[in-house]
Amino acid sequence: MVLSGLLLVGPSLPVTTTHAAQSTVTRDASTQAAYAINPPNLEMIAEGDTVVAGSVDISNAPAGTAFTATLNGPEGQQTVNVDADGTFRFQLTNPAGANAAYSATITATTPTGTLTSLPATAAVRAAGTVDPLLGYTVPAPTISSLQDGDTSFSGNVNIAGAPAGTSFIVFVVDSSGTPIAQANNVDGSGNFSGTLTNGASFKAGETYHFTAVVQRQADGDPNPFYKYSSYTSVVPQSVTPPEENPLADYTVPTPVFSPLKVGDTTLNGTIDLSQAPANTTFTVTVTLPDGTTTTVTPDATGHFTVALNQPVQAGQTFTGITTATNDGFTKTGQQGSITETEAENPLANYTVAPPTVNDVFVSDTTVTGRIDTTGAPANTTFVVTLTLPDGTKKTVVPDANGNFSFPIDAAQLGQNYQLMVTATNGAFTKDSSSVSVTVKARDNGNGGNTGNNGNNNGGNTGNINHNGNNTTGGGRVPTTNQPSAQKPHITLTHENQTVFPATSDQQQSWLTALGIALMSLAGLLGIHRRKQSN
């Protein structure tokens, strides 16, 4: 069967059918093709018949529509009225001859225009041929929804009850009266699909008509039998542009939970809100160990708290998923989880002792000390962290006895060093409290006493306090101790001249030497005077 034109409302269109002459229809330009005439069906014509009969479904025609049927054949063209039940009959002048063919169309005259149907064709059969489609009504196809701009279609036709050996084709007609596609792939379940020809697409608001055509070859007859279904008319829907989803490119944050311990009655966590699109709201759904869920709303900083229905037990796991909502759109993130691990942590009940640190003095180049590992769980290792005055950190591993040593730049008076011990056992770590050590001035010796350098109480008097030994006028060195916290101090008086206290270790050193030299000189002068007096 060839279908190269459709006889709906439209401009002059050629209609070509198998074994049929060309015919022309006209269109009332003011008429919109919301209604289309269903294709007619002709009964089988046998050689010698003098009547050609057929029918058309006119049940959905607008009120006031009049129908006529036109037959084209070897005797020319004749037109008859269609009865109210949709049947029509043509009386032939001469009996139908062998190999002849007839074509019939239906014309509908409505208050708004004239419509013409697709043609039905029939070839004259040998006498005694049985019509295999006699009594079979072809079901109208069901069409999947169409939208503006679609270029393909799909649907289903109910093929149950079809005579054996039949096949189906689905034709598509647009609202201008033009055939735009056909589907030849109706499968054994009645499903079919097709694509519009010449790059055409369905238009919103226009009416498209779909008809199923069944065909079957009769035994020994080269011409197959055809039969149409009624039309299924479809109006494609307008496509509403999709709203822009503000969450489309946003990665919803995974909840991060705070550590848990046995006996806790709340679960705390946070989500990162820093990259959230404007006007996005969040909820966090937490799944408890018993499978129940609780949904909470984080605060403006992303923090949330879940009240637990029972205290946390050792080894329990909690999970959570964040849901973001924005302008009616929702999106969920990846699952976060937290497991109570205190019972499995060998360091849980172990207190890491802070390090014992030796004093550090000016110009020292090491910081040394020792750690106490008494009671440490098996397989525990330790490192000591030293924080330098500038904030830089160093770490060392103590030796088997717990001793450690850090090399440092020459220590300066008043600098502060912080030290801390970290214990590690498997995947678990634990820190000690931090201790600090401040660089001290070095304590080098004893202070001195006042010496008398002459028998006649003459000469010079030297009062010497320093960080070594004091020398008396007789040249002896007393060993009186000077408190370690006392700053070295030297005051010398000689011929009404005073040397003021030193202000640095370097000054203390050379002033001490100078004092000893002056006292020695005073002693010699005393001896010399005694000799002169003698």
Q: Care to describe what's here?
A:
This protein has one helix spanning 505-533, and strands spanning 13-15, 23-25, 41-42, 45-46, 51-55, 66-73, 76-81, 87-91, 101-110, 113-116, 120-125, 142-143, 152-156, 167-173, 179-183, 191-195, 208-216, 225-228, 232-234, 256-257, 266-270, 281-287, 293-296, 303-307, 317-326, 329-332, 336-339, 356-357, 366-370, 381-387, 393-396, 403-407, 416-425, 428-431, 435-438, 462-465, 489-494, 497-499. The chain is mainly beta and 534 residues long. The strands form 10 sheets. Strands 4, 6, 7, 9, 10 and 11 form a 6-stranded mixed β-sheet that branches. A hairpin with a 2-residue loop joins strand 37 (489-494) and strand 38 (497-499). The longest helix is centred in the C-terminal third of the chain and has 29 residues, at 505-533. It starts with 12 loop residues before the first strand and ends with a helix. InterPro entries: LPXTG_anchor. Pfam families: Gram_pos_anchor. It comes from Lacticaseibacillus saniviri JCM 17471 = DSM 24301.
